Amino acid sequence: xxxxxxxxxxxxxxxxxxxxxxxxxxxxxxxxxxxxxxxxxxxxxxxxxxxxxxxxxxxxxxxxxxxxxxxxxxxxxxxxxxxxxxxxxxxxxxxxxxxxxxxxxxxxxxxxxxxxxxxxxxxxxxxxxxxxxxxxxxxxxxxxxxxxxxxxxxxxxxxxxxxxxxxxxxxxxxxxxxxxxxxxxxxxxxxxxxxxxxxxxxxxxxxxxxxxxxxxxxx
Length: 219
Hints:
The protein has helices at 2-9, 68-82, 112-127, 197-209, and strands at residues 16-32, 35-53, 56-62, 96-99, 132-150, 155-173, 176-186. By secondary structure, it is an alpha+beta fold. The N and C termini lie far apart (69 Å).
C-alpha cells in the first residue's frame, strides 16, 4: 500500500497534499441475562485526502482505496477553485516510521466460537450465584491500522490491538436491588480474559452481599 500512496502523491500542481487511511476489524460478543444478545465481526476501511493550493483547501473522503490518485486529483482541483492567496506552512522535517502493535497473545488467532465458549462459562458462573436477578456481559477486540503520508515525504504507519471486557450482575431481594461490575482492558493480550472465573464469581457475589449492607435512613 505504501507504494500506491506515494505514487498517488506525486506529480500534482499543489503546495501540499496529505493522505490518511484507516482500516480495522473488530469482534463483539454481548449477553443480556442468560441469553446471547449479539455476536459478530466487522471490518472497516476509509480515509481522506486534503490538498492545499494558494491558501485554499480541497478535501475528499472515501471508503475504497482503489483509484487513489484520481481521488487526490479531485482534492487538488477543489483546492484550486478556492485558492486565491499564498500557502504558508511551517517547515517540518519528513518523518518515516512504522509502529507495529505490541501483541502478546493475538485475539485474531482465537476463533470466534472459542471466545463465545469462554464467555458462556463466565455467564454460567454469574448465574450459579443465588439471588442474581439479571446480568450483562460485553466483550470486544479490535485491530486498527492508521496510515498518514504527505507530499513532503512523511509516511507513518501505526497499528494497535485493543481488547475490552465488561461484566455486570444485579441481585434482588424484594424491593432491595443491588449491582456490581467488573471492567477490564488490554492492549494486545487475549490472555487477560482467559482466567477470570474467580473474579467474575466474586463480582456476582458482591452484588448479593450488598443486599445485606446497612441502609441509610433519611431524617
